[in-house]
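Milestone 3.1: sequence recovery, worked example.
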């Protein structure tokens, strides 16, 4: 699959919300209850909160030759990977890996020594493949629904 990575623009927001929502709904049932999927994916419906998610982050978007958004990733200057999502039709084609690799390269270039993230059940293997280690299992709540995620890190 041919695609390119580029910087995020505000015009991407509705497309990225769709990618976020669809990725969770597509893979979620493998690991999460219907209640968890509904609570988690609903974040994309809150346009103000979803847009604010990108305010303090550097975001990259994967696009095909037609400009269709295929995935996105976002990181904070502190070294935290805040987002990594790929549209279901483009999953398992290297886009998530390419986004993560690019974010790690940029963080390394900025002198970050430790990168962290909170990974879901379905993103944990990708982070582990890229060298991340689970530091702890975190229990959190979103929209009144309990979740488990993996606090992970990678030292350069």
């Amino acid at each position: 699959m041919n695609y390119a990575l580029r910087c995020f623009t505000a015009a991407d927001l509705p497309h990225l919300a769709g990618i976020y929502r669809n990725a969770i709904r597509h893979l979620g049932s493998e690991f999460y209850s219907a209640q968890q999927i509904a609570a988690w994916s609903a974040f994309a419906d809150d346009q103000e909160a979803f847009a604010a998610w990108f305010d303090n982050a550097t975001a990259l978007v994967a696009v095909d030759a037609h400009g269709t958004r295929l995935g996105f990733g976002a990181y904070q200057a502190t070294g935290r990977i805040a987002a990594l999502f790929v549209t279901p039709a483009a999953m398992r084609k290297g886009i998530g890996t390419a986004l993560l690799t690019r974010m790690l390269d940029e963080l390394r270039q900025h002198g970050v020594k430790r990168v962290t993230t909170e990974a879901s059940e379905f993103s944990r293997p990708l982070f582990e493949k890229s060298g991340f280690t689970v530091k702890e299992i975190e229990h959190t709540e979103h929209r009144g629904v309990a979740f488990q995620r993996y606090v992970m890190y990678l030292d350069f």
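The beta strands are 4-7, 58-63, 69-75, 80-86, 114-119, 133-142, 145-155. Residues 4-113 form a domain with the Aminopeptidase fold (CATH 3.40.630.30).
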